[in-house]
Design goal:
Blueprint: H1 11-37, H2 42-64, H3 70-86, H4 89-104, H5 109-134, H6 140-185, H7 189-204, E1 210-218, E2 221-227, H8 230-235, H9 247-254, E3 259-262, E4 281-289, E5 292-301, H10 307-348, E6 352-356, E7 362-365, H11 368-373, H12 377-380, H13 394-406, E8 411-419, E9 425-435, E10 443-450, H14 452-466, H15 476-488, E11 496-504, H16 507-514, H17 516-533, E12 539-544, E13 547-555, H18 558-573, E14 576-578, E15 581-583, E16 587-595, H19 601-617, E17 623-625, H20 632-647, E18 653-662, E19 668-679, E20 683-685, H21 687-697, H22 700-719, E21 729-733, H23 736-739, H24 744-755, E22 762-767, H25 775-788, E23 791-797, H26 806-809, E24 814-817, H27 819-823, H28 829-844, E25 848-851, H29 857-866, E26 870-871, H30 882-895
Parallel strand pairs: 16-17, 19-21, 21-22, 22-23, 23-24, 24-25, 25-26
Antiparallel strand pairs: 1-2, 1-5, 3-4, 4-5, 6-7, 6-10, 8-9, 9-10, 11-13, 11-16, 12-13, 14-15, 18-19, 18-26, 19-20
Helix pairs in contact: 1-2, 1-4, 2-3, 3-4, 3-5, 4-5, 4-6, 5-6, 6-7, 6-10, 7-10, 14-28, 16-17, 17-18, 20-21, 22-24, 24-25
The structure holds ligand C2E and calcium ion (2 copies).
Length: about 900
């Protein structure tokens, strides 16, 4: 079907379409009349036919095009005349009507009037011609017809206009609805203004070129929020003042009225609006809410815009004002909330937030200054912060400060001490950011944290790592460190280094007969005497038990060392009074001397040990100087090492298991696997007799590997018959040497796979010493182990390494507090403080803590009250053979649940059960 035969969707178009169909129908009837009824001559008939086709063509074209010009209309009139002549004037009138009405639906009043006049002329002419031929006179009917004809055409014209307006109103309403929707969803001011601009374009399109601009803000500071040419907005950041607008525009807007004025050559409007030249009309709508001006929507055009369009613009303006108001409110609210959050953070944060200018003057500090340094913020603001930094830390702090200032935007971490109001010094760590260039801050922003506790713990641990807790003397680690340094200084000086090893004779007898406490006091007294004999520059160390050592860093002759040994023997001859008894101790002393840069520290210590052994062998209470023929002890070591080589193949290694318990409930959580060596001649040897040697020779790799396999196998054997029991965890020691093996992870994975033990049931105990080497590779190894699923514990925590910084980087699960700290719990305040600090540190890092070597109820209660999670020690159980452990496990399961107070270790018995 041809397109024009389908009813169009819109009302006006539908009316036009109906008229068109009527015209076609009329033309068809006319055609039939022409061909069948008419008797006029052939020439007129053919001409009328052509005219008819022309009229139909015009009707169709008129439907599509609405242009009007007089030429075709006259031609149309001629066609009508011919049709009228060929059929009858009255019939042609039908065609006139239809054609005219059809046209009336389009054009303006004067166009319809012109057509009417032309058509009427044609009609009257046709009547005159017909009257001339047929004799009938121009009657009143004709005039009557003509008047009715005019009125009807006028009415139809009005109808057409009304329909047209109705349609425009519907379109406008739809556009406004769409604009409303766009404004409601616009998330911010910028998007609101863009929506207003686009809606204005849609509403005013059709009326020629326009330029839209939207200003937001107070009358004296209007920001260009959107314009038809976005580049203009982007280029203009300076606010406009309404006072700079032409008065004709300014005054009505200030009175909150819409204004439409010719702006003479637009020169009166600010250039920033980017109004194209030639647009000399300006329509501006104030955007007002609750009587306040929020901005202006303006349209510049070549000619005035219509009334309806202006009204639509006003409606759009009031919607825009509401939208702008609500986004400003929302933005303010958001800003206020984040300001409040920020303020709360700064005011209540535990760190000090400070702003310092380039000269070091404090401009702002948060209230936590009071908590950390004891000063009120007003006491410090305006003062130079460098004045309160510890003088030892000042040079470094100034250096860091200079580096920070040299690089805008850079950040640095500075650690320094500052004086507290109470006169003490606090360690502070400041994260400083150079924001001097930032217009809001214009200073260095510092986030300052109090790390005093952390530092003190570090210092205490460092002290513990290098000093003996009983006597306060340097320990073996510090002795070895000083020895190494002394030997390294060697080549610059011709002097020798001497080492004396001392071992009290029969100390064990005194200890056993008088008790440990008396033994300890005796050791302290002896330590004091030895120290009194040595020179201040010598190092007197306690190596453990009743063994001491003295390092003389510079001596010319071995005689000096021998004289010192004699002085010590002399001093010790005076009795020591312990618990009212006079006790006399003697000591055996081994001396060795090395040229600097000569033998290494280990060799020197071994030689001193050999000399000591020789002194003991020769009847004690004497001094022996090392000489290479004293190889007996060295030989003994070699022999033992050789035996150890065969221990694994011969099945002489054993693993014993010591329970690890939950200190709160007493429930067994797991066990630690500890190696033992069943030596063919010497009997069962503890790790201290062979592990150090195994570490030196590298045999430790095989031993650790074997212990891990055996421990995994054993735990799986215990687990299998008890699937419902909570999973026990097997802790296994890993030597630092094993930790450095590239195939460590595969080795562990193999052991787990072979035994079937789930990875989380295995906990590897490593020592802090791994942090001393390549920390990056240690972290990588630990991550690989964690990825496997096994747990990691730091063993003997607090004895090894003086810095705690590695802890944050190492992915570990547990800290095991060394036995040396647990021993003093309850009576040694320093030990208790360290244990408390270690537990707090572990908690802050989310780690569990295991207390080692718990021997007494007092130690247990102390650990419980400090919040320690887990523990092991003779108080609960000594290390047990696999059989004994299995039996205990059965026992524990049948008796569960048990409160902690009922947990009793077996009576301490020598050796393993
Ligand atoms: P460690 O890892 O600190 O093991 C704990 C040590 O403390 C064990 O000594 C244990 O018997 C002992 N112990 C436990 N509770 C108490 C207590 O209440 N009082 C006292 N005085 N001691 C207690 P052990 O079995 O002699 O092991 C000594 C060290 O030998 C271990 O110290 C560990 O560093 C090392 N070690 C043991 N087995 C292995 C192993 O298979 N491989 C490696 N690399 N090292 C091992
Ligand atoms: Ca251990
Ligand atoms: Ca330990």
């Amino acid at each position: 079907m041809p397109r024009f035969l389908l009813p169009p969707p819109r009302l006006l178009a539908r009316v036009r379409w109906l008229f068109l169909l009527l015209a076609l129908f009329n033309a068809a009837v006319m055609l039939v009349m022409l061909l069948l009824v008419s008797s006029t001559d052939r020439v007129v008939q053919v001409a009328a036919l052509v005219g008819l086709v022309w009229l139909c063509w015009r009707g169709l074209r008129g439907y599509q095009l609405m242009h009007f010009s007089l030429g075709p209309v006259l031609f149309e009139g001629l066609a009508l005349l011919l049709v009228g002549l060929a059929v009858s004037p009255m019939r042609a009138l039908g065609l006139f009507y239809i054609s005219l009405f059809f046209r009336a639906l389009y054009g303006s009043v004067h166009r319809v009037a012109t057509i009417t006049v032309v058509y009427l002329g044609v009609y009257i002419g046709a009547n005159i011609i017909a009257a001339h031929y047929g004799g009938a006179a121009l009657s009143l009917v004709v005039i009557n017809q003509a008047l009715g004809f005019l009125v009807l055409a006028g009415m139809i014209h009005v109808l057409g206009r009304t329909l047209q307006r109705h349609e425009a109103a519907v379109t406008q309403e739809r556009l406004l609805r769409e604009a409303g929707a766009a404004l409601v969803v616009a998330p911010d001011l910028g998007r609101v203004c863009v929506a207003v601009r686009d809606s204005a374009h849609a509403l005013l399109s059709g009326g020629g070129q326009i330029h839209v601009w939207i200003l937001v803000g107070a009358p004296d500071a209007l920001i260009i929020a959107a314009t038809s040419d976005q580049a203009i907005r982007d280029a203009t950041a300076v606010p406009l003042d309404l006072a700079t607008f032409p008065r004709s525009v300014q005054a009505p807007l200030l009175a909150h009225q819409c204004v439409e004025v010719p702006v003479s050559a637009t020169s009166g409007m600010p250039d920033a609006l980017g109004i194209p030249s030639g647009m000399s009309w300006c329509t501006a709508v104030p955007l007002t809410v609750h009587g306040g001006l929020r901005g202006i929507t303006g349209v510049s055009s070549e000619s005035p815009i219509g009334r309806e369009q202006r009204e639509a613009l006003i409606t759009l303006g009031s919607m825009a004002a509401l939208a702008i108001d609500s986004t400003i409110l929302a933005e303010n609210l958001h800003q206020r909330r984040s300001d409040e959050h920020f303020r709360a953070l700064v005011q209540n944060g535990s760190d000090i937030i400070a702003i310092i200018d380039a000269g070091g003057i404090l401009r702002y500090t948060s209230p936590s200054l009071v908590r950390i340094l004891g000063f009120q913020p007003e006491q410090w603001v305006g003062w130079n912060v460098f004045g309160s930094i510890h003088w030892d830390d000042l040079p470094r702090a100034r250096q860091e400060w200079a580096l920070l200032l040299a690089d805008a935007g850079s950040t640095r971490t500075i650690v320094f001490r500052m004086r507290h109001a109470g006169g003490t010094w606090r360690y502070l760590e400041a994260n400083a950011a150079n924001l001097l260039h930032d217009p809001i801050t214009e200073g260095v922003v510092m986030n300052i944290r109090d790390i005093t506790e952390h530092k003190l713990l570090e210092d205490q641990l460092a002290h513990q790592a290098f000093y003996d807790s009983l006597t306060g003397l340097p320990n073996r680690a510090l002795l070895m460190d000083r020895l190494n340094r002394a030997l390294a200084r060697g080549s610059r000086s011709p002097a020798y280094v001497a080492v004396l090893f001392l071992d009290l004779d029969h100390f064990q007898v005194i200890n056993d007969s008088l008790g440990h406490a008396a033994g300890d006091r005796l050791l302290m007294a002896v330590a004091e005497q030895i120290e009194g004999c040595a020179q201040p520059e010598d190092t007197v160390a306690r190596l453990g038990g009743d063994e001491f050592a003295i390092l003389i860093e510079e001596t010319n002759d071995v005689i000096d060392a021998v004289h010192l040994a004699e002085r010590i023997a002399e001093c010790l001859r005076a009795p020591v009074v312990i618990d009212g008894r006079e006790i006399v101790v003697t000591t055996s002393i081994g001396v060795t001397l090395s040229a600097r840069g000569g033998s290494g520290a280990d060799a020197l210590v071994r030689d001193a040990d050999v000399a000591l052994y020789a002194a003991k062998a020769k009847g004690r209470a004497r001094c022996e100087v090392f000489d290479p023929s004293m190889g007996a002890r060295a030989f003994e070591r070699l022999e033992l090492e050789e035996d150890l080589r065969h221990a694994i193949p011969d099945g002489a290694l054993r693993v014993v298991y010591q329970p690890i318990v939950n200190l709160a409930t007493g429930q067994m959580l797991g066990m630690e696997a500890l190696a033992r060596w069943q030596h063919p001649r010497r009997g069962l040897l503890p790790p201290s007799e062979f592990i150090p040697m195994a570490e030196q020779s590298g045999l430790i790799l095989a031993i650790d590997g074997w212990v891990i396999e055996e421990a995994c196998r054993q735990l799986q054997e215990w687990r299998l018959p008890r699937p419902a029991e909570p999973c026990l965890v097997m802790s296994v020691n890993l030597s630092a040497r094993q930790f450095d093996q590239p195939d460590l992870v595969e080795m562990i994975a193999r052991a787990l796979h072979a035994s079937g033990l789930p990875p989380h049931a295995l906990k590897l105990e490593i020592t802090e010493s791994i942090a001393m080497g390549d920390a990056d590779s240690a972290v990588a190894t630990l991550n690989a182990l964690k990825a496997l699923g096994v747990q990691i514990a730091i063993d003997d925590f607090g004895t090894g390494y003086s810095s705690l910084s590695y802890l944050k980087r190492f992915p570990v699960d547990t800290l095991k507090i060394d036995r040396s700290f647990v021993v003093g719990l309850g009576h040694d305040a320093e030990n208790t403080a360290i244990v408390r600090a270690v537990i707090a540190l572990a908690k802050s890092l989310g780690l569990s803590v295991t207390g080692e070597g718990i021997e007494t109820a007092e130690q247990l209660h102390e650990l419980q009250s400090l919040g320690c999670d887990q523990g092991q020690g003779y108080y609960f159980a000594r290390p047990l053979t696999a059989n004994a452990f299995g039996a205990r496990l059965n026992d524990e399961i049948t008796r569960r649940p048990r409160p902690i107070t009922s947990v009793r270790g077996p009576r301490p018995n020598r050796g393993i059960a």
